Amino acid sequence: MNRMMNNIWQACIAVIFLSCFGHADIYASSADSCSTRATHSLGIELRPAWVVPTNDYFRKYGPGENIKAALSPHIKYGFQFAPDTHYGRLYPHARQGAGLSYTQFFNKTSLGHPVTLYIFQSNRLAHLSDRLSLDYEWNFGVSSGWKKFNVEWNMADGPVGSKVNAYLNLGIILNYRLSPQCTLTAGVEGSHYSNGNTHLPNSGINTLGARIGVSYLLGIPSGQQDLPPLPIPEVEKGFSYDLTVYGATRQRTCTTYIEGEPSEEEYVPGSFGVAGLNFAPMYTLSRYWRVGLSADFQYDESANISQHRVDGSYGDDIKFYRQPFKERFSAGLSVRAELTMPIFSINFGIGRNVIATGRDTSIFYQTLSLKAYVIKNAYINIGYQLRDFHLPNNLMLGVGYSFGLKR
Q: In the chain, how long is the greatest CA-to-CA distance?
């Protein structure tokens, strides 16, 4: 297990612990003297899925072409803030927690059987009847136990280059209340596994599937059963300011250009460092949304390395001259939108570098980040940067603070 993916494990475990077991202390100082009571639940799910053939490994070559399906049993713990608390009034249907799953791809010699630890959050999209609702749920975590690509027995690039990979999942779910304490769920979902270019290859694995499950409340706090609906608190609109610093490592391929056009790629041995800073003035529109602009600065030790290759070097002995600093540094502007919920926020960004030199930094980029507010306005940031909506760039693992934000 490489060092960076080990750091992802540690960050996710810290977020899971603080969000699932530290919430009583973190959110006890609301202006309306809210209670710290919560309802807790346990659930089990079964998720069959189709492995989407998004790369040649699953379409043409070797054992990967026989991988068509996956099956994952899940066990989940969740909690929901009591309706007389600040967050319980703002987000009466939000539930968050942690889950554990085991995935069977029916082809152990090719991919392995990963075990995934993740955090999740769900909320209501539509009220359909007294017992039925339409919800969404996202999962984010890390999965371990992959069999990474090995050039000696795979005829083409495998989908994963590391034993540990990040896990992303989004589901749309019908939630049917069988009784006051028992709920049946069924829906559709999509999942993505990759390592954020910390190791190559990194084409990733994508699945589309279904889920069915049942959850059981572990008791309702005394007096909560007869509590009348409480009014939703007013959310203070206005500007706040997010400052995020992050770092990561990544691997890189070297592209050979012929007459200005890319010809072939080689893996560059070793890993390279990435560091960045984002400063984003954000305007609170409602209890669910913040929008704004972000000034994004990034240093990538590997940027534009292909243009500085030492002639005649190749393979394991490939060598490069050090790029000028201006080719490793970039600055851009991005439009940001953020879904705000208890504990977690999901931040989306689309931007372009305005200060950049070279092919690797003169880019149109996209970001997706999960922010876990663990101590007041301080958060852990776990994010990912893409280019052109499909090419992976690098992870964004860091910390930040929201100045002036009223949560």
A: 78
**DSSP three-state, residue 122:** strand
Among 212, 182, 75, 185, smallest CA distance to 122 is for 185
Token code pair at residue 391: 């090419």
- Average of pLDDT values for 169-175? 98
Residue 280: closest CA among 209, 378, 349, 194: 349
Residue bearing tokens 């699932």: 20
Q: Is the pLDDT of residue 314 over 80?
A: no
If residue 134 lies in a helix (H) or strand (E), which one and from where to where? strand 132-146
* Cβ neighbours of residue 222 closer than 8 Å, sequence gap 6 or more: none
Measured CA to CA, the distance from residue 48 to residue 210 in angstroms comes to 6
Token pair of 207 as six digits: 């699945």
Strand-pair partners of 353: 332
Distance of alpha carbon 388 from alpha carbon 73, whole angstroms? 34
Please give the model's pTM, rounded to 2 decimal places: 0.87
pLDDT digits (tens, 9 = 90+) for 67-104: 889 999 999 999 999 888 889 999 999 999 999 999 99
Torsion angle, CA of 340/346/350/353, rounded to 10 degrees?
Answer: 110
E strands in 234-387: 238-258, 261-284, 289-300, 329-340, 344-355, 364-375, 378-387
> Helix, strand or coil for residue 6?
helix
pLDDT at residue 56, as a whole number:
76
**Cα three-residue angle 119-121-124, rounded to 5 degrees:** 165
Strand, coil or helix: 18? helix
Which 8-state DSSP code applies to residue 309? B
Neighbour count for residue 327 (Cβ, 10 Å): 20
Q: What is the pLDDT of residue 150?
A: 67
Which backbone phi and psi does 10 adopt, to 5 degrees?
A: -65, -40
Question: What is the separation of C-alpha 277 from the centre of its chain, rounded to a whole number of angstroms?
Answer: 19
